[in-house]
């Protein structure tokens, strides 16, 4: 097998070749490593090598398939989990994360860890610890974040799918930037242990980015389900998710919304992505309605998301300092700004924001009384350029002065916060809804811009809607195939 043939297969296809003894796991790993050596210097997707034991003895549904994991919440025993931070670059972990163990038990050959922003706190992948990851469709643009390294590796053909996770869009945003499938399962369906019971009150979940719907479904079968020390015993579907691929989703009623309170005027390509999707949905017999307003208070939800995110980031910084003895110099300026804002938040305000999730959830549930799915763009703009969200130099100096004088709580009264919010959420205002409400959502690569850049669309489903999302995604994949599109790398 050569690389051109390797790239034509998804993980499910490669696993069958191994099972049928048409190719060996060692051969596949060699091809993946050779491709990584060729393209990783340009895309900076893989940031840590993982030594691999002989792979030809693996068992499981994905035995012998090369795989990469994200360097946060996907611990690999004996190696550091950097979380994209200089402070954690040399601190090894003692045991595999449950999700990593399940991937290993499925026979996947994990040979590297992928790039991300510090603590996964941005929708772009540009950490000071590892440097920026780059989009294989245009090396001047971001692959998104926080699972940007994984998405770049898959889009570049190093592996057919890779580990991701999602606390505010971190699977769906990179999938949309890189022309991939990105499913965020519902709250509690995938494990965060053993190091954590749940992250961000359940807003963060595990998953993958992949080229095909059947890989996404089969990987969910591999990792879903509770764990003895977890907070939930999740309800599992009566049959495997993979069996939903190819099943008729039925005639669905879908509500569509493109403008948002954070970005009332999305890029024309965001409208074009949704319009193209609506045409296909209508041709397939689905009923689609344009919504006059969002079915939830998107402005309030964005504020609640950011407030809780900043508080959690403050906690991450403090936990890291206690574990490593690191000082502020080991963290990025933007991280310290967000952490300072988190520390300046009162306990009452924090609990108030967490409790308001129920209000957002009730509004969305009311919407689902009339509709099966909510459709939005995944991105409000095409993938931004690397470095586009750097703070202007005057704001950098102002932030440094406030951080140095320990008056960083004053940051919330400056233009710095508005600048960070507008830039960091303005291009991705749609994804946080599914995290705060715990609902499943998927990004599908159904549109390419006039400049040949991917720009995905998102479907949000009600509770236990993963199977429905998979059925519809597979139907759309059949109508508008995308897996044969190769990034020009």
UniProtKB/TrEMBL annotation:
InterPro entries: Amidase, Amidase_dom, AS_sf. It comes from the Bacteria. Its EC number is 3.5.1.4. Pfam families: Amidase. It catalyses: a monocarboxylic acid amide + H2O = a monocarboxylate + NH4(+). One of its GO terms (molecular function) is amidase activity. Gene3D superfamilies: Amidase signature (AS) domain. Signal peptide: none annotated. Coiled coil: none annotated. Residues 34-469 form the Amidase domain. Belongs to the amidase family. This is amidase. It comes from Mycobacterium asiaticum.
